[in-house]
Amino acid sequence: MNKVKGLTVVLFIVVIIEVIAEYFRFLPLIYIFKPIISVMLMILYWYSSQRKDILFFLTIFTSLLTNVLFIPQDIHYIFIGLIVFGFHRIINIFYVLRVMKTRDFIPVILASIPFFIIFFYIFFDIDLLSKKIYYIMIMHNSLISIFGGIALSHYIMNDSSRSSWLLICVLTFVTLHFIIFIEKFYIQLQIFRPIAMSLNAFAYYAFYKFILIIEKSNSN
Fold first, then answer.
1. What does the alpha-carbon distance between residue 220 and residue 218 come to, in Å, rounded to a whole number?
2. 174-217 pLDDT per residue, tens
3. Cα separation of 86 and 88, whole Å?
4. Do residues 144 and 174 make contact, with C-beta atoms less than 8 angstroms apart?
């Protein structure tokens, strides 16, 4: 077994432990293994990529910060986490636009419309206690809709392995965003947290695969 395969196995073992910890809400394990997932992804990318793009590390690092800030059930940390996550998503979108060499934004805008309709329909059906949270949620719903539009437009216009991995990644993020939204504002179920953690880990692994494929294709 080579180093990359070994690291991949370790990554998925860490994910399984974290998902179990999330289900039982065992905080000591969550504080240890949740950030380790991001660290493992960065190590995996370091050994897999010939380019080693700083934006990949920045994307995963801001995700790590967000995940840690979301662990405590404290509105102050959650608010900071939402801000950091906003920066994370902006970096994520810029990174994808750059590597995909997107020049025509009309298809992106058109493909974003269904996502805008879905997220803003459920958003305007809730009552938020804070105007600050209200505006941040508008920003997050807009960013995830744009992200979805980028992936969908590239998949429709150029069905390739990199477009497929990007679409898988973004649709997983969209599902994750929807589940978190439902849990925070509609109904809280114990199963939501392990599902969300599983989706989060798979989405970033799909993002890692997408970046590797596009780096390889660009170098060729």
1. 5
2. 898 888 777 776 777 788 889 999 999 999 999 999 999 999 88
3. 5
4. yes
